[in-house]
Amino acid sequence: DDTSIGLDARLSGYSLEGGYLEIGPIGIGARCYVGNRAILSPGSLLEDGAVLEDLSLLPAGARIATGQHWTGSPARPLPPTEADRQRTVGDLPRPSPRRRFWIGTAQALGVLMIPVAFLLAIFPGLILINELYANTNGYFAYLVVAPLVGLSFVVLLALEIAAAKWLLLGTLRPGSYDLHSGFILRKWYVDRLMSMGLDLLAPLYATVYLAPWFRLLGARLGAWAEVSTAGSGSPDLLDIGEESFIADCVSFGPPRVDLGRVTLAATRIGRRAFVGNSALVPAGTCLGESVLVGVLSVPPADPLEAARVDSAWLGSPAIDLPRRQASPAFGEEATFRPPRRMILLRAFIEQFRVLAPVT
Q1: Counting CB atoms within 10 angstroms of each CB, which of 96, 272, 276, 288 has the fewest?
Q2: pTM for this predicted structure
Q3: What is the layout of strands, in order, in the sheet containing 312-314?
Protein backbone atom coordinates (compact mmCIF):
# COMPACT_ATOMS: atom_id res chain seq x y z
CA ASP A 1 0.00 0.00 0.00
CA ASP A 2 1.11 3.56 -0.81
CA THR A 3 4.41 2.30 -2.23
CA SER A 4 5.96 4.16 -5.19
CA ILE A 5 8.19 2.58 -7.84
CA GLY A 6 10.17 5.14 -9.86
CA LEU A 7 10.70 5.38 -13.59
CA ASP A 8 12.74 2.53 -15.12
CA ALA A 9 13.31 0.90 -11.73
CA ARG A 10 14.28 -2.76 -12.16
CA LEU A 11 12.86 -5.30 -9.74
CA SER A 12 14.88 -8.04 -11.34
CA GLY A 13 14.36 -11.07 -9.09
CA TYR A 14 17.06 -12.80 -11.09
CA SER A 15 20.72 -12.46 -12.00
CA LEU A 16 23.09 -14.10 -14.48
CA GLU A 17 26.48 -14.98 -13.09
CA GLY A 18 29.04 -17.64 -13.90
CA GLY A 19 26.79 -19.28 -16.48
CA TYR A 20 23.92 -19.75 -14.01
CA LEU A 21 20.50 -18.11 -13.73
CA GLU A 22 19.81 -17.23 -10.11
CA ILE A 23 16.19 -16.55 -9.16
CA GLY A 24 15.09 -15.10 -5.84
CA PRO A 25 12.19 -13.27 -4.20
CA ILE A 26 11.96 -9.51 -3.69
CA GLY A 27 9.96 -7.95 -0.87
CA ILE A 28 8.67 -4.36 -0.80
CA GLY A 29 6.59 -3.26 2.18
CA ALA A 30 4.01 -0.52 2.64
CA ARG A 31 4.82 3.17 2.14
CA CYS A 32 8.18 2.43 0.55
CA TYR A 33 9.88 4.50 -2.10
CA VAL A 34 11.97 2.87 -4.85
CA GLY A 35 13.73 5.59 -6.83
CA ASN A 36 14.05 6.18 -10.54
CA ARG A 37 16.37 3.65 -12.20
CA ALA A 38 16.99 1.83 -8.92
CA ILE A 39 17.72 -1.91 -8.99
CA LEU A 40 16.62 -4.53 -6.46
CA SER A 41 18.61 -7.77 -6.60
CA PRO A 42 17.32 -11.28 -5.79
CA GLY A 43 16.60 -11.83 -2.12
CA SER A 44 16.49 -8.13 -1.26
CA LEU A 45 13.86 -6.65 1.04
CA LEU A 46 12.42 -3.24 1.83
CA GLU A 47 10.51 -3.21 5.10
CA ASP A 48 7.60 -0.84 5.69
CA GLY A 49 8.53 2.81 5.23
CA ALA A 50 11.93 2.08 3.66
CA VAL A 51 13.47 4.34 1.00
CA LEU A 52 15.87 3.38 -1.81
CA GLU A 53 16.96 6.49 -3.67
CA ASP A 54 17.39 7.13 -7.40
CA LEU A 55 20.05 5.21 -9.38
CA SER A 56 20.81 2.93 -6.42
CA LEU A 57 21.55 -0.80 -6.32
CA LEU A 58 20.31 -2.94 -3.44
CA PRO A 59 22.58 -6.03 -3.44
CA ALA A 60 21.35 -9.59 -3.21
CA GLY A 61 20.12 -10.47 0.27
CA ALA A 62 20.27 -6.89 1.54
CA ARG A 63 17.52 -5.54 3.78
CA ILE A 64 16.44 -1.94 4.40
CA ALA A 65 14.78 -1.79 7.80
CA THR A 66 11.65 0.17 8.63
CA GLY A 67 12.18 3.93 8.32
CA GLN A 68 15.69 3.63 6.90
CA HIS A 69 16.90 5.64 3.90
CA TRP A 70 19.53 4.10 1.60
CA THR A 71 21.30 5.39 -1.48
CA GLY A 72 24.21 4.55 -3.76
CA SER A 73 25.53 1.66 -5.80
CA PRO A 74 25.86 -0.51 -3.83
CA ALA A 75 23.32 1.13 -1.50
CA ARG A 76 24.36 2.32 1.95
CA PRO A 77 22.24 3.86 4.73
CA LEU A 78 21.93 7.61 5.20
CA PRO A 79 21.24 9.23 8.57
CA PRO A 80 17.44 9.07 9.07
CA THR A 81 15.50 12.29 8.83
CA GLU A 82 12.28 13.30 10.54
CA ALA A 83 10.45 12.69 7.25
CA ASP A 84 11.78 9.11 7.21
CA ARG A 85 10.56 8.49 10.75
CA GLN A 86 7.11 9.80 9.87
CA ARG A 87 6.60 7.46 6.91
CA THR A 88 5.00 4.75 9.08
CA VAL A 89 2.99 7.11 11.30
CA GLY A 90 -0.57 8.32 10.67
CA ASP A 91 -3.02 7.76 7.85
CA LEU A 92 -2.66 9.11 4.36
CA PRO A 93 -5.61 10.66 2.54
CA ARG A 94 -6.97 8.11 0.10
CA PRO A 95 -9.09 8.66 -3.01
CA SER A 96 -12.56 7.19 -2.90
CA PRO A 97 -13.23 3.94 -4.80
CA ARG A 98 -15.37 5.95 -7.20
CA ARG A 99 -12.51 8.33 -7.96
CA ARG A 100 -10.05 5.48 -8.41
CA PHE A 101 -12.49 3.85 -10.84
CA TRP A 102 -12.81 6.98 -12.97
CA ILE A 103 -9.05 7.62 -12.93
CA GLY A 104 -8.44 4.02 -14.03
CA THR A 105 -11.07 4.27 -16.75
CA ALA A 106 -9.56 7.51 -18.06
CA GLN A 107 -6.08 5.94 -18.13
CA ALA A 108 -7.42 2.92 -20.01
CA LEU A 109 -8.93 5.24 -22.62
CA GLY A 110 -5.63 7.14 -22.74
CA VAL A 111 -3.75 3.92 -23.46
CA LEU A 112 -6.05 3.31 -26.42
CA MET A 113 -5.53 6.85 -27.68
CA ILE A 114 -1.74 6.54 -27.93
CA PRO A 115 -1.86 4.38 -31.11
CA VAL A 116 -4.50 6.76 -32.50
CA ALA A 117 -2.00 9.62 -32.25
CA PHE A 118 0.48 7.54 -34.26
CA LEU A 119 -2.13 6.72 -36.91
CA LEU A 120 -3.22 10.35 -37.23
CA ALA A 121 0.37 11.32 -38.01
CA ILE A 122 0.94 8.65 -40.63
CA PHE A 123 -2.55 8.59 -42.16
CA PRO A 124 -2.21 11.55 -44.60
CA GLY A 125 0.96 10.07 -46.08
CA LEU A 126 -0.63 6.66 -46.46
CA ILE A 127 -3.59 8.20 -48.30
CA LEU A 128 -1.20 9.93 -50.71
CA ILE A 129 0.79 6.72 -51.30
CA ASN A 130 -2.43 4.79 -51.92
CA GLU A 131 -3.73 7.35 -54.41
CA LEU A 132 -0.47 7.42 -56.34
CA TYR A 133 -0.34 3.62 -56.35
CA ALA A 134 -3.87 3.45 -57.76
CA ASN A 135 -3.05 5.99 -60.48
CA THR A 136 0.20 4.35 -61.65
CA ASN A 137 -1.28 0.91 -62.40
CA GLY A 138 0.64 -0.73 -59.59
CA TYR A 139 4.11 0.38 -60.69
CA PHE A 140 6.48 1.58 -58.00
CA ALA A 141 7.00 5.12 -59.28
CA TYR A 142 4.94 6.39 -56.34
CA LEU A 143 7.80 5.48 -54.01
CA VAL A 144 9.64 8.63 -55.09
CA VAL A 145 7.36 10.57 -52.70
CA ALA A 146 8.20 8.28 -49.76
CA PRO A 147 10.74 10.78 -48.31
CA LEU A 148 8.06 13.49 -48.34
CA VAL A 149 5.64 11.12 -46.63
CA GLY A 150 8.32 10.37 -44.03
CA LEU A 151 8.88 14.09 -43.48
CA SER A 152 5.14 14.68 -43.05
CA PHE A 153 5.00 11.90 -40.43
CA VAL A 154 7.86 13.39 -38.39
CA VAL A 155 6.43 16.92 -38.55
CA LEU A 156 2.83 15.90 -37.83
CA LEU A 157 3.75 13.65 -34.88
CA ALA A 158 5.98 16.34 -33.36
CA LEU A 159 3.21 18.93 -33.75
CA GLU A 160 0.61 16.54 -32.30
CA ILE A 161 2.67 16.01 -29.15
CA ALA A 162 3.31 19.74 -28.78
CA ALA A 163 -0.38 20.54 -29.29
CA ALA A 164 -1.46 17.92 -26.72
CA LYS A 165 1.07 19.31 -24.23
CA TRP A 166 -0.20 22.89 -24.49
CA LEU A 167 -3.90 22.00 -24.71
CA LEU A 168 -3.88 19.56 -21.78
CA LEU A 169 -1.25 21.09 -19.49
CA GLY A 170 -0.43 24.63 -20.52
CA THR A 171 2.65 25.93 -18.71
CA LEU A 172 3.86 23.61 -15.95
CA ARG A 173 4.67 25.05 -12.54
CA PRO A 174 6.93 23.55 -9.87
CA GLY A 175 5.03 22.17 -6.92
CA SER A 176 3.52 19.14 -5.22
CA TYR A 177 0.34 17.67 -6.71
CA ASP A 178 -2.16 15.01 -5.69
CA LEU A 179 -1.40 11.75 -7.50
CA HIS A 180 -5.11 11.22 -8.22
CA SER A 181 -5.83 14.72 -9.48
CA GLY A 182 -7.04 15.63 -12.95
CA PHE A 183 -3.81 17.56 -13.57
CA ILE A 184 -1.63 14.51 -12.95
CA LEU A 185 -3.96 12.42 -15.13
CA ARG A 186 -3.45 14.87 -18.00
CA LYS A 187 0.29 14.93 -17.35
CA TRP A 188 0.35 11.13 -17.39
CA TYR A 189 -1.15 11.15 -20.87
CA VAL A 190 1.30 13.79 -22.16
CA ASP A 191 4.18 11.78 -20.64
CA ARG A 192 3.01 8.72 -22.59
CA LEU A 193 2.99 10.76 -25.79
CA MET A 194 6.49 12.06 -25.03
CA SER A 195 7.65 8.49 -24.45
CA MET A 196 6.15 7.43 -27.79
CA GLY A 197 7.88 10.38 -29.42
CA LEU A 198 11.20 9.30 -27.93
CA ASP A 199 10.75 5.93 -29.65
CA LEU A 200 9.27 6.97 -32.99
CA LEU A 201 11.17 10.24 -33.38
CA ALA A 202 14.48 8.84 -32.10
CA PRO A 203 16.38 9.86 -35.30
CA LEU A 204 15.40 13.46 -34.56
CA TYR A 205 17.32 13.46 -31.27
CA ALA A 206 20.97 14.55 -31.21
CA THR A 207 20.45 16.55 -34.40
CA VAL A 208 20.26 20.26 -35.09
CA TYR A 209 16.53 19.80 -35.72
CA LEU A 210 15.65 18.78 -32.15
CA ALA A 211 16.16 22.15 -30.44
CA PRO A 212 13.24 23.91 -32.21
CA TRP A 213 10.86 21.13 -31.15
CA PHE A 214 12.06 21.16 -27.53
CA ARG A 215 11.62 24.93 -27.45
CA LEU A 216 8.11 24.50 -28.85
CA LEU A 217 7.40 22.15 -25.94
CA GLY A 218 8.49 24.86 -23.50
CA ALA A 219 12.11 23.94 -22.74
CA ARG A 220 14.74 26.66 -22.54
CA LEU A 221 17.78 25.67 -24.58
CA GLY A 222 20.79 27.91 -24.95
CA ALA A 223 22.51 28.38 -28.29
CA TRP A 224 24.04 25.14 -29.60
CA ALA A 225 22.90 23.09 -26.63
CA GLU A 226 22.78 19.40 -27.62
CA VAL A 227 20.22 16.87 -26.39
CA SER A 228 20.50 13.22 -27.31
CA THR A 229 17.91 10.56 -26.41
CA ALA A 230 17.25 12.00 -22.95
CA GLY A 231 13.86 11.46 -21.36
CA SER A 232 11.93 14.22 -19.62
CA GLY A 233 8.23 14.61 -19.01
CA SER A 234 8.42 18.26 -17.97
CA PRO A 235 10.03 20.34 -20.75
CA ASP A 236 8.77 23.59 -19.20
CA LEU A 237 10.97 22.97 -16.17
CA LEU A 238 14.18 22.38 -18.15
CA ASP A 239 16.80 25.08 -18.61
CA ILE A 240 19.89 23.92 -20.51
CA GLY A 241 22.73 26.39 -20.85
CA GLU A 242 24.38 27.21 -24.15
CA GLU A 243 26.83 24.71 -25.62
CA SER A 244 25.93 22.02 -23.07
CA PHE A 245 25.51 18.35 -23.99
CA ILE A 246 22.98 15.86 -22.62
CA ALA A 247 23.97 12.35 -23.75
CA ASP A 248 21.96 9.20 -24.54
CA CYS A 249 19.41 7.77 -22.10
CA VAL A 250 19.81 10.52 -19.51
CA SER A 251 16.87 10.76 -17.09
CA PHE A 252 16.45 14.49 -16.84
CA GLY A 253 14.46 16.02 -13.98
CA PRO A 254 12.02 13.09 -13.49
CA PRO A 255 9.06 13.79 -11.17
CA ARG A 256 9.19 12.26 -7.71
CA VAL A 257 6.11 10.22 -6.84
CA ASP A 258 5.87 9.40 -3.14
CA LEU A 259 3.07 8.90 -0.60
CA GLY A 260 0.34 9.99 -2.95
CA ARG A 261 2.07 13.18 -4.11
CA VAL A 262 3.87 14.06 -7.33
CA THR A 263 6.63 16.65 -6.95
CA LEU A 264 7.78 18.69 -9.93
CA ALA A 265 10.81 20.98 -9.75
CA ALA A 266 12.85 23.05 -12.18
CA THR A 267 16.16 21.59 -13.38
CA ARG A 268 18.96 23.75 -14.72
CA ILE A 269 22.17 22.85 -16.53
CA GLY A 270 24.89 25.51 -16.74
CA ARG A 271 26.87 26.59 -19.78
CA ARG A 272 29.14 23.97 -21.38
CA ALA A 273 28.11 21.26 -18.93
CA PHE A 274 28.16 17.58 -19.91
CA VAL A 275 25.82 14.87 -18.61
CA GLY A 276 26.96 11.37 -19.58
CA ASN A 277 25.09 8.36 -20.90
CA SER A 278 22.41 6.88 -18.61
CA ALA A 279 23.09 9.46 -15.91
CA LEU A 280 20.26 10.74 -13.73
CA VAL A 281 19.77 14.41 -12.91
CA PRO A 282 17.12 14.68 -10.16
CA ALA A 283 14.41 17.32 -10.44
CA GLY A 284 15.46 20.54 -8.74
CA THR A 285 19.17 20.13 -9.56
CA CYS A 286 21.17 23.15 -10.65
CA LEU A 287 24.47 22.23 -12.31
CA GLY A 288 27.11 24.94 -12.67
CA GLU A 289 29.10 25.91 -15.73
CA SER A 290 31.46 23.32 -17.24
CA VAL A 291 30.27 20.63 -14.82
CA LEU A 292 30.73 17.01 -15.89
CA VAL A 293 28.41 14.25 -14.64
CA GLY A 294 29.81 10.89 -15.72
CA VAL A 295 28.17 7.86 -17.29
CA LEU A 296 25.64 6.11 -15.00
CA SER A 297 26.18 8.82 -12.38
CA VAL A 298 24.25 11.38 -10.35
CA PRO A 299 25.31 14.89 -9.35
CA PRO A 300 26.08 15.50 -5.67
CA ALA A 301 23.12 16.02 -3.35
CA ASP A 302 24.69 19.21 -1.96
CA PRO A 303 23.40 22.09 -4.14
CA LEU A 304 26.59 24.11 -3.59
CA GLU A 305 28.76 21.25 -4.79
CA ALA A 306 26.56 20.56 -7.82
CA ALA A 307 26.79 24.23 -8.81
CA ARG A 308 30.57 24.40 -8.42
CA VAL A 309 32.11 25.60 -11.68
CA ASP A 310 34.30 23.14 -13.63
CA SER A 311 33.69 20.23 -11.23
CA ALA A 312 33.43 16.58 -12.30
CA TRP A 313 31.38 13.81 -10.68
CA LEU A 314 31.28 10.06 -11.11
CA GLY A 315 29.15 7.30 -9.61
CA SER A 316 26.25 7.01 -7.19
CA PRO A 317 26.72 8.65 -4.75
CA ALA A 318 28.84 11.09 -6.70
CA ILE A 319 32.61 11.08 -6.20
CA ASP A 320 34.48 14.31 -6.89
CA LEU A 321 37.13 13.95 -9.60
CA PRO A 322 39.61 16.69 -8.71
CA ARG A 323 41.40 16.74 -12.08
CA ARG A 324 39.98 16.42 -15.57
CA GLN A 325 42.37 15.72 -18.43
CA ALA A 326 42.30 18.41 -21.10
CA SER A 327 42.09 17.47 -24.78
CA PRO A 328 44.13 20.00 -26.77
CA ALA A 329 43.79 18.09 -30.06
CA PHE A 330 40.54 19.85 -31.01
CA GLY A 331 40.05 23.58 -30.80
CA GLU A 332 36.79 25.44 -30.37
CA GLU A 333 36.32 25.69 -34.13
CA ALA A 334 35.80 21.90 -34.15
CA THR A 335 33.72 21.74 -30.96
CA PHE A 336 31.85 24.71 -29.51
CA ARG A 337 32.36 27.28 -32.28
CA PRO A 338 32.20 25.50 -35.65
CA PRO A 339 32.26 27.63 -38.81
CA ARG A 340 29.06 28.09 -40.81
CA ARG A 341 30.12 25.57 -43.47
CA MET A 342 30.38 22.81 -40.85
CA ILE A 343 26.96 23.69 -39.46
CA LEU A 344 25.40 23.58 -42.91
CA LEU A 345 27.17 20.32 -43.71
CA ARG A 346 25.88 18.78 -40.50
CA ALA A 347 22.33 19.96 -41.19
CA PHE A 348 22.55 18.47 -44.69
CA ILE A 349 23.79 15.09 -43.43
CA GLU A 350 21.35 14.92 -40.52
CA GLN A 351 18.32 15.44 -42.72
CA PHE A 352 19.06 11.99 -44.18
CA ARG A 353 19.51 10.59 -40.69
CA VAL A 354 16.04 11.86 -39.74
CA LEU A 355 14.25 10.92 -42.95
CA ALA A 356 15.88 7.64 -43.99
CA PRO A 357 14.40 5.41 -41.22
CA VAL A 358 10.84 6.74 -41.59
CA THR A 359 11.12 6.63 -45.38
Answers
A1: 96
A2: 0.87
A3: 226-227, 245-246, 274-275, 292-293, 312-314, 319-320
